[in-house]
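step 4 of 6: structure.
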Amino acid sequence: MLKEIIDALNERSVLAGWTVRHLLTHGAQVYAVPNQIESQRAVDVERYKIDVLRQTSGPDGAPRMGSGDATLLPGGDVRAAIENAALVAGLVSNPVYTLPEPASLPDVPLIDAALQKDASTATKEMMERIRAAASRNHSVQLTAAECFGEIHTTHLLNSRGIDAEQETTQLNVELVLHSQRGEHEVETFREMSRRQVADLLLEDEIEQSARYTLDLFEAGSPPSWQGSVVLRNEVLAVFVAGDSLGGGVLQTLGSAASKYAKISPWEIGKSVFQSDVKGDPLTIWANRRIPFGTGSNRFDEQGIPAQRVQLIRENELVAFAASQRYADYLNLPATGAFGGVELPPGRVSASTLLAEPYVEIIQFSWFNPDPITGDFATEIRLGYLVENGIRKPFRGGQLVGNYLDALADVRWSAETGFFGNYLGPHTSRFNSLKIAGQDE
Amino acid sequence: MTDLKLPSAMAELRPALVGIVAEGRGQAPYFSVLLSSKHGLQITVDNREERVTERAPSAGTVLSAFDGLTVYERAVSGFGWNEVQQGAHELVRDISFANYTTQNEPQRSGDFATLIQIDPAELSTQEKLDRCRELQSRVKGRDPRIVNAQVRYIESSEHAVFASRQADLAQRVQRVNLFVVVIVAGEDGQVQYDYLSKSGGAGWEVLHFTDEEIQSVVDGAIALLGAERIEPGEYQIIAAPGVSGTICHESFGHGVETDMFLKQRARAAHFIDRTVGSSLVNIFDDPSQPGGYGSYFFDDEGLMASPTQIVEGGIFRRGITDLYSATALNIPRSANGRRQDYSRKAYARMSNTYFGAGTFTLDEMLAQVDHGVYLDKWSSGMEDPQGWGIQVTCHYGHEIKAGRITDRVFAPIGISGYVPDVLQSISAVSTELLLDAGTCGKGHKESVPVASGGSHLLLKARLG
């Protein structure tokens, strides 16, 4: 069918360019409720995604560009789909842009061999590991778990000669640990996404989550706090790089599309901060080459090869993450999709960053700063006030502040970790963050 | 005969489903087939560019076998008879099902479609694009501080066919959404934005913006250039209907999805027929509401839509269910078994969830506030059904002083607190009933279209 689509596209002389992706997903899903497998699913998805460009003209007769798209299922009407996409492209009037041309593709490790071989078995084994690890701690109970294992295959071709294939694997795990003392019930929720099973440290995660679950029994009211806040590991990764619901402030303000739309006030060659930087200088890469990174690939949706793009160097914006379209519009290099977030190691050890007193936040309800302004006010599910050698758990209250102001006053650990879409220091100490507690 | 405009492959497969169900029933105690097709269009017009794109379409078949303990499913891409027949065969072939007598369900059949006056399917893409361009031209030049004005139109069309031993159902559900987003820049380089949307389970007839409404978005964005962060603390607040709806959605919406009861994740499970809020609190979920953005005629498990009263006079009455949790908990089903698409399982999900109307006017409620905050617009929320914590983030709010809304703006504002405390503090509910469209996740995934809303609420809560 791919050949039929390409032949049909090449017959359409009205088109200025096209991209076709043949997308295949094969996956397995296992769902558990207490003491029971709730559901087992096998999933197959196949489709062809077609994007076309067509030269149009503006009111002054100047050349413009239109785009249209179509998705076909196997056996779908190829000619009708292309006809409709071309028709839509003829309606739209934008500044002219191009498609990427062929380039060599990097080898980026993206595949878990066991999952690739048998998604169903790999996914069930993951679920069994979760259930076994949870059963070792009799003070908590696994009340829900979901394991998804998927193999994604992409074959991309475009009118400029790109012909590229890639295969990736993806694992998504959710689990809930619950405990009860009398009428007092507590739970912790964990979710993780990785490309290979080896990067899911399930037993360690469950042991740690069990401790947090039991600490919730002792959790008191949130303190009002203005001062040092420590974030580590997964919660730090979410803070820096966003979560599965979408990218965060960096991805928005660091994108050429946002710059073109005048949403991003960032300027290349200037500091990304409006305030003085009191902490470590900020350096960030938008990296699609992180081995087994969930944002990694060999090429993106347009066929642009994976790159490790230095976005910010010592607080100064060096580049925007730019698709070919916005690279053409802003006369920038085309870097392709953003990918994962990478930070360099900090200068001090993690233990240095744990000088008391401080507040450590273990879990937010949902850390979702406004992607444009960076402002946030987010509820705390579990945190610790650490002072005088005592870690006192609390729940509730809100961490209040601004994402960029926070990054302007933070110290990073020399020790690093990999958390799916984030590679960098595993411990951070934000020197001046505010918690709206309940004693105000 | 209702014209569902079913995709042709779906229409062609539909007659064969009786045989496929019968074959599945030969092995499994319960067997059903769902054909699901979702497609849509998104048009974006702003000061600098235009886009017309498909909404990521999905089309596939879900084959479900259930023995009272485990749901076994096969999700097949598309509606090819061979693939579906083979999938059904493979699904039941190697499973040793437990003995299970299915619940008695009424026989039900019919074809249903959203009532539409101006059907998006009858308008050309050119006409829709022109309507967006016309609206954008009404927004963009209203103030020199506007650096971009975006109009975003989203239409989604869902077709579903459900077949089981008791059901032969088909539906077309049409949803539309039109956003106006105004982005402004201050002299100091600060960028702010405000937005307004119109939506419904309807057609273009609900997508009209008045000049006053457009100006309110511009004014809102400009006011945000001077917004302050609120001093954290407990406040007397009046929640606008959209904010009320988000409070409702995150508290006694997610908190009463009965799959969460089964997973011991919902504290509400222990509060059936117990007081959870003030006597003014009535909460409903109603997928059958005409024109609702979260409406449908039957859920993804083939149950006919009908309203559920969740909280009555402050007393929690019942939750909303999917088939599995209702069976496991031995409770009556409600039509809330919904899937993101055919590739995902069904969970208990909300539809149109709202606080029931009260008897106060907004002016009467404002008169009761000496110093407080009017929460104009929500931006996000997150549930905590076990801890009964609440996180609702508001894009902005205005100060209330001596019973009047002032020009002082706070942004953003987070509402937090313990759900029963928040609901117990509700001391007045206004007469109007307005719902906002939204997308709801189960935790951090499984998106489905919903609406949330209600009335203005006067209550106390912690803001930060």
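step 5 of 6: annotate
 - The longest helix of chain B spans residues 125-139.
 - Chain B has a mean pLDDT of 94.
step 6 of 6: archive
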